[in-house]
Amino acid sequence: MNQSTIEPEVQPAELGGKPAFRGWTPTSSHLNPYVPPAFITLILVIGHLSFGILESYQKTMLAIVTSIICELLLGRLLLKRWPNLASAYITGISVGILLRAPGYWPYIVCALLSITSKYVLRVNGRHIFNPSNFGICAMLFLASDAVATLSIQWGNNLAAMAVIWVLGSLIIWRARRFHICATYVASFLFLSLVRAWITGDPWLSEVSPITGPEYQLFIFFMITDPKTTVKSKLGQCAVAFSVAVAEMFFRLDQSIYAPLYALFCVGPVALLIEMARNSRRSGLRSPNVLNSGTA
Amino acid sequence: MKKVPIARIFVTLFFVGLLMTPAIMRRYASSHSGSSKNTLDRQTALTRHGFYLEEVSHSAGIDLVHQAPTLDAQLAKIMQEVASMGASVSIVDFDRDGWPDIYVTNSAEGSKNHLYRNMHDGTFKDVAEEMGIADVNQPGTGVSMGAVWGDYDNDGYEDLFLIKWGRPELYHNDAGKGFTRVSEQAGLPPWINANTAVWFDYDGDGLLDLFVGGYYSEDVDLWHLKSTRMMPDSFEYAKNGGRKYLFHNLGGGRFEEVSAKLGIESRRWALASGAADLRGTGHQDLFVANDYGVSELYRYDGKRFHEVGEQAGVGFAPKSGMSVSFGDIFNQGKYAVYVSNISEDGALIQGNNLWVPKEGTDGNATRYENLARDMGVELGGWSFGAQFGDLNNDGNLDLYVTNGYVSLDRNRSYWYDFTKIAGGNSSIIGDAKDWPAINGRSLSGYQQKHVWLNDGAGKFVDVAQAIGATDTYDGRAVVFADLWNNGALDVIEANQRGPLLVYRNTVAPENKWIEFDLHGTRSNRSAIGASVELDWNGQKQVQTVSGGSGFSAQNDRRIHFGLGKNPQVEKAVIHWPSGKFQTLDSLNPNEFYTIEEPR
User: Fold this and answer.
1) 3-state SS, residue B276
2) Which of A59, A87, B476, B510 is most buried when burial is the number of CB atoms within 10 A of its CB?
3) Which residues contact B6 (CB under 8 A, 6 or more apart)?
4) Which 218-247 residues of chain B touch chain A by CB within 8 A?
5) Rg (CA), chain A
6) Which ipTM did the prediction report?
7) What is the pTM of this model?
8) Would you give the DSSP letter of residue B406?
9) CA distance B52 to B576
């Protein structure tokens, strides 16, 4: 893959909209490109002021700053332009919230892995992993002795959680991606019944994880990432359902990080299938394009 | 063939390097930890580390296996997880014969506690029955969770406060010949579900006061549940635990509960507490380690307590605090505070905390930073009791950490289900009926203990396997005491549903020691809160007489200093709780000193 195959990467955010340097267009989204970064910041602020979810300010800042610097350097190096940093900010803040590690180095490595994956793991000029999902999964695979993820709740205050769910849903609605979240949540709830039936555990214990902040980030910022989701609305719903199904199997295998691993597996496969289908369609329409592409 | 730009090759190599970084970090950490993972023969251990431990409980006449409680049947599916505490050990010279005795709790309904009298010949005899403090777990009264000893009436004999999930008990020591139950006269409440208590004289009036930290709410009878909604309402922010009690000693065997009046109002789930003069004010500060939440640090200003945990830096990140111990690990005359938490590869990495006073801060402005990772004492598994003590008498305080939560089926883990419920909303996690059944699975079971040797240069090295601490029981309480009166700190470990282990310590003879047995006159007779600052060979170390530390534990009241080779002891300065200072000169290594506070 050479440089000319790399499309401008700079999304306003991992959620919503066309690349910022092209300008936000009402036809692509009704969402201001800076709403998602503002929203994830709100989650961070509410979570921390209410319950002190951050292990430390320093670690979260480290993840954010590392992401931003890495994005700047790689954007400049490979795209020859200064990228919009909203996406990197969201990646950094996701790493800062979701990753739990006593040391500092995992935050640096995870942030670097997340951002770099966008520039390295590409097919047909498109990155196929959600950056923070990739970074965190890689750390969980490779450094399980040093890291874990946020696995706790917001505490006993339902109000904070309700604010995030309502705001998140409104924002996602405006971004025209609410169907993805709704499909996933509905699938999760239905499959939690299936899991409870299989395992014999209380149904509420199967529902329990989705009430935590890890899932709020997962639902609003990972599975809806426009760069790593398929294009058609029906396809997006199918992928969200597939993620929930894959997660169920990971859960039945007692995998603690089931949702992250499910997205890690399903997301790229869905994109590759979409690319293959698009390629076949365009090939049928215009064989010369295929010929020139393989020349 | 397409030309691949150098920049892309560079970025790809960088990416591969990033993927390899965790392995490199692991290798680096392993090569720099200096930990000794292999067992060594005694002589090699003695030569290399300066000591070895030998488990001698059976030959010492102690054959005790802890029995756990069986709580309400509504908790049956998670019984092993809920009824997972109660094994405790405390050291007391109850008969004042100059030899440390051992008190051990049991926790099954109807089971007996044990008081092992030191027979001076390496054996122990259980005298709890004849002393009247064995049959203390009768159905309907709750069961024992721990014990702390302090001479509350200053008659020269250590009295017993029994920490229970149930009716707390105070036993008066009748001149070492028996114990009399005085709970009602003392004014203790009818029921507390506590796991920690500490004797200390917070106001310096010469009478020992008592702090008791509730775990489950005191209105819960764990044998007759009115509701299964009695679990913590959050894994890290729970505030529905038991209340705290501060019993002010009024004299005459009576106590007044003053916690709210003096500013101690918390419903966090306390598991451990300790008191030490952390600011050099003459007042003992109270440090409380809470499960499911942040630690609390209470400073006494002469009138009331102020909770300053967040301000001091120790109450910011919520973890699962399970032990509090104090140690002057840098030989600077300042205490570090060690708090144990949970670490399990691939599941939850909280890391234990080693709170060290920040450079340039002192007094009320003292702030702490966590140096556990830097000093190599961070990852201790599902850690419970921890104690500081100089195990090899080299002049530096070492750290012993016991661990392991529930050891059942080795091949099946409950961790997945545990994290599933731990991430849930309060309405789910707080109700035991929503918890998945444990079904014989382990939860951080069969863990190796940690004996971290302080190298005196800022690092601790784990030598547990090398020096003989090889058990993998579900450790709860650990204490140090010189059981053989030979200048070596022996280790006694109480294990949940496991045996009481007595590790006899043999120390390289070239390393010297000195011990102090303090007795207050104007201060409380137990001298709890008195500190000794010892100067030798150009260095100094401070230690304090403790009224309870670690997890459900109390070390020998005698203070033990290791001195290293060829020591020249310059002086010892005793700071009595009464405010008096006493300086001792002409001290010799390898001697016991019994010191009475000047009147």
Assistant:
1) strand
2) B476
3) none
4) 233-240
5) 19
6) 0.86
7) 0.91
8) B
9) 34
